[in-house]
Amino acid sequence: MSIARLIEELVATGAPIDAIVIAVRAVEEGQAVEAERRARATERKRQQRERERDRTRDGHATVAGQSSDTPRPPSFPHTPKHPPISPQTTPDEAHDAAFEPMSASMPTSGPTREPTSEPDGATLARELNDAGGRALAQPASSPGLLVLSEPINWLRNGCDLRADILPTIQARCSRAKPSSIRSWSYFTEAVYQARDNRLKPAPEPNIAQSARASRSTGRPAAARPHDALLAAFARRAGAHLAARGGSEPEPDPEPGVDPGRTIDLVATGR
Asked: Which region ranges are annotated with the description Disordered (predicted)?
């Protein structure tokens, strides 16, 4: 039975939203298990064909004169480049699964992020509906709001429920018309943008720009390490000048020199 048909029948019987959500997730998990079973069966058939092809190649080599005792390089089991993607698996998770053995054996250079705990289906549905409010359509006419695969993918891709998802839904729904949003995919792009903005590193301060801003606004720029030393020297120089009358002293005349008199440097032997 399809998910849409199941939702229609449960709504017709008057089942509560929590029961509908649990039933939909059970169907999705069953589909995921069935897809994984089919993928494993396909892999077994492929490995069997490869073994038969290897036996045929060994037989041809023996006929051509090569002994069957000749050592051959060991054959490793084939690892698919991209593992099968179930309905509950995102492309990013499938890519990570293909390279998991290599990444697990290599040391990490930075801090690892703890896995985000996913709330249960009933709690997640209740918080999402509370954030959306009247802008969300009625569940009977919008099955896309009962299927929570899209919000679960947000959580698995690093989005935080409190910091990214709920504020984004509240902001979008505050500007939307009542009952105009029929699917959670309407918020996908905005939720990922909120996650990227939260994880973006803080820009480094620009010293030249801050100096220009201080000259234009009249406010002093950030103090540099030697500014305090220069300020102390200026205060001491000001106090010294004030003690001598408020002006710099004139230099003392050289000995034997009369101010205002012309001196013949050749005659004096200088």
From this structure: 31-122, 199-227, 240-270
Report the 10 Å Cβ neighbour count for 3: 16
Cα atoms found within 13 Å of the Cα of residue 169, Cβ hemisphere only: 27
Which position has the token pair 């409010």?
A: 133
Instruction: Give the residue among 137, 121, 141 at the shortest CA–CA distance from 184.
Output: 137
Q: How far apart are CA 181 and CA 142, in angstroms?
A: 9
How many domains would you assign to the chain? 1
Distance of CA 133 to the CA centre of its chain: 28
| Three-state secondary-structure class, residue 224 | coil
Distance CA 136, CA 149 (A): 17
Quickly list H helices, 121-222. Answer: 121-132, 149-156, 166-174, 188-199, 207-217
Structure tokens at 149: 């695969």
What 3-state class would DSSP assign to 50? helix
Classify residue 191: in a domain, yes or no: yes
Classify burial at 89, counting beta carbons within 10 Å of its beta carbon; exposed 0-12, middle 13-18, buried 19 or more: middle
Position 169 in a domain: yes
Task: Confirm if 194 and 169 have CB atoms less than 8 A apart.
Answer: no
Q: Is residue 162 part of a domain?
A: yes
Res 108 pLDDT > 60: no
> pTM, whole model, 2 decimals?
0.39
- What confidence tier does 2 reach under pLDDT thresholds 50, 70, 90? confident
**How many whole angstroms separate alpha carbon 219 and alpha carbon 216?**
8
